[in-house]
Write a structure and sequence with these properties.
Layout: H1 2-18, E1 31-35, E2 38-44, E3 50-52, H2 54-63, H3 77-106, E4 119-121, E5 128-130, H4 147-178, H5 189-201, H6 210-234
Antiparallel strand pairs: 1-2, 2-3, 4-5
Helix pairs in contact: 2-3
Protein name: BED-type domain-containing protein
Amino acid sequence: MEQIEATVTASTVENANSLKRKSDDIGWEYGKLVDPNNKDRVVCNFCKNVNSGGINRFKKHIAQVGGGVAKCRSCPDEAKLACLKWLEGTEKKKQDKVVRELGLRSDVNVSSGGQQEEDLTCAGSSEPHKLGPIDKWARAIDPSLSSSAQFQQQKINQALFNERTLQVHQYIAKWVYTHAVAFNAIENDEFKQMVEAIGQFGPGLKPPTHSQNFKGNKDSLEKKMAKNCVNFYYNPG
């Protein structure tokens, strides 16, 4: 009998542990999974409300912020403030990342050699996009069009850019998989600048060869990095 009770107790503890995520995200201090196989449904420890939207949406439930999110009226102020602080910190990190990546891209400048290129403005962006083969079917937004016509053209242009972006990402993914490149390499600053430089150059870029170009580039890069290290050492500010 005691053995049966021990087995039941162990099974209960195991089930309870499977509903807790091993994560440092503060949201898991106030909720747990409804189903260990579904990471999107989280039940609140305080009001027992089930949130369908993942741990980030659940933190909004505890912090009582955001539209379309049920607010928890049973949680203590300590939990509310903790989740609110976490959400604000996460949002700031996202904004800082955007600013930093814009800075990385602005550091890249590939001369166009004076060649005039057609520009096409994409919806939601103030920067002109260089026309590629797929964009021959798109056109700039005509301000004389009606609001509905302008909106329709924006949707067409956005769809074309989304399609082109997907195609480029597929080529990058193919290279990553084929050569076993670490997935986190795409977060590397130099990779992002390389992508920006290739984009600025446009079609027809010939990649460097290992024997001819890389050694010269490597030597030049090493000298530049050494110079930057010296400058940083003597002028850290």
